[in-house]
Amino acid sequence: MGSLARDSMDCLIQGPSGQGQRAVRSRPEVKAPHDVLVCVSAVALNPTDFKSPASNPSPGAIMGCDFMGYVVSAGEDADKLFPSSTRVCGFVHGSNPGNPDKGSFAQYLVTDSRLLVRVPDSWTDLDGAALGGVGWGTIALAMEVSLRLSGRPSKPAAPQEDGSRVPVLVYGGATATGTMACQILSMSGYKPIATASSISSSLVQDYGAAAVVPYSSASCGETIRDHHTGGNLRSALDCISSPESVECCFTALGRIGAHYASLDFIPDDWKTRKAIKVYMPLTYALHGHEILFKGPYHRDADPAMLELGRRWRDEVQGLVDAGRLRPHPVREVQGKWQGIIDGLEMMKAGEIRGQKLVVAL
Ligand SMILES: NC(=O)c1ccc[n+]([C@@H]2O[C@H](COP(=O)([O-])OP(=O)(O)OC[C@H]3O[C@@H](n4cnc5c(N)ncnc54)[C@H](OP(=O)(O)O)[C@@H]3O)[C@@H](O)[C@H]2O)c1
């Protein structure tokens, strides 16, 4: 299916039962001063691309979040930093009930340039898509809002009195979010202690984990508490959000001042320790708009979130420019739109471990 006219484009929309469906839509236009029109060259897949349509159906909405592409045109406040042809990566809120035209699984998209990262020439388009924006955006929100960690790559946290680094647990270190967390936490002065399977353990260490504990061990939480953090763990990022992961994190966290971030909603009866402060970051919120999801995934519009995202975009741009940040290991799926549909099925079936699925458009 090729585009029918110059002002139309091919894209993947949510079908009636949530599955991807090819469609032709109007090409979006720059309307706000900070917006840019991007010609999308590659996309990366995230679990939310199949989870959101199931939990908050929005048939007809363009799907997809992470993208890499080239600036086609820019609003008046964006054109100096993002002239035509600039290679950029970022994320949008796809499958969006509040803005069904917003997804990245499309030939073109319009997005706020203040959350875009310029991609170096030495990176391929697939690398840029794998970096996208969901990963670093999630870590930004988790560190700043959920875990209240003040260290940043540009200003790392001071060591503790004994000279050691403050430990942070990353449960699910081999997830795409987990390897981003290990890198950013380590560069921010913290000591990431991760969990992973034995197959993924070396990958997680390669991305900056100081120690990796097998999550399959029945004493995972005790091992982290007693052998790796001396009972003083205050921060846990849970990239899995299962009964087992919550139990491990809650066991590992120390008695005083503990904060826990789950990346998916966890019910109250899993929270066995009332003293632990729980907050689920929602990365879509970084655009500052209201998130029209139901229940715990709803967020009010909040311009402070966009400010937070802008600050962290600057951090990430600095790391990328200095060659200090890597995307998760890339695995290309062939087949453009059908490749996206196939890739989402592979993810849903739990077949993808330690890899970021990317598709060239
Ligand atoms: N709230 C938000 O805004 C937000 C943002 C981003 C992601 N998320 C959520 O965060 C989660 C992770 O997303 P992702 O894209 O980073 O993941 P991913 O890359 O798709 O994760 C794959 C990895 O998950 C691990 N895994 C799978 N099942 C596991 C289990 N039962 N126990 C422990 N580890 C298991 C495996 O690690 P091993 O290889 O070690 O087995 C595998 O390598 C998803 O649920 C996603 O929806 C939420």
Brief digest:
This protein has about 350 residues and is α/β, with parallel strands linked by helices. The protein has helices at about 50-55, 125-130, 135-145, 175-185, 200-205, 220-230, 245-250, 305-320, 335-350; strands at about 10-15, 20-25, 35-45, 65-75, 85-90, 110, 115-120, 165-170, 190-195, 210-215, 235-240, 260, 275-280, 330, 355-360.
Folded structure, characterized:
- The strands form three sheets. Strands 3, 4, 5, 6, 7, 14 and 15 form a seven-stranded mixed β-sheet that branches.
- The model has no long low-confidence stretch (mean pLDDT 96).
- The protein has nine helices and 15 strands.
- It has two domains: 159 residues, Quinone Oxidoreductase, Chain A, domain 1, CATH 3.90.180; 146 residues, Rossmann fold (3-Layer(aba) Sandwich).
- Helix 3 packs across helix 4, helix 3 crosses helix 8 and helix 6 packs parallel to helix 7.
- By secondary structure, the protein is an alpha/beta fold.
- The chain is globular.
- The site of NADP nicotinamide-adenine-dinucleotide phosphate (NAP) has 29 residues, from helix 1, helix 3 and helix 4.
- Report the C-alpha radius of gyration, rounded: 20 Å
The biggest beta sheet reads: 7 strands, mixed
Order of helices and strands: EEEHEEEEHHEHEHEHEHEEHEHE
Strand content: 15-25%
